[in-house]
Design a protein that fits this description.
Length: 102
């Protein structure tokens, strides 16, 4: 026992386990992709759980030199939707107790 019944060894073991769980969760996030498709399938954004974009897929029909602004808007919308899905994945993978700390 430590000071006033405080168990330092138990606390250290708990902290080490939490760190190991967090490292495992971060590895899973890096290796798990989420996909968001917008514009009726015109733009698909694929990113991993750490929000690194892996790929952007564009339908041929969306590439219109006369309407670049629509393509830009769809890419932004796809990124936002994929980012939201990555946040949900993050929340599901992080060990309990960690989400409130970050």
């Amino acid at each position: 026992m430590g000071f006033g019944g405080f168990n330092m060894q138990g606390l250290m073991k708990q902290a080490q386990k939490m760190q190991e769980d967090m490292m495992k969760a971060q590895e899973e996030l890096e290796n798990t992709n989420v996909e968001a498709t917008v514009g009726g399938g015109m733009v698909t954004v694929i990113m991993n759980g750490k929000k690194d974009i892996q790929k952007i897929k564009l339908a041929k029909e969306v590439v219109d030199p006369e309407d670049i602004e629509m393509l830009e808007d769809l890419i932004v919308a796809g990124f936002k939707e994929a980012s939201k899905k990555a946040d949900e994945l993050y929340a599901s993978k992080m060990p309990s107790g960690i989400n409130g700390l970050l």
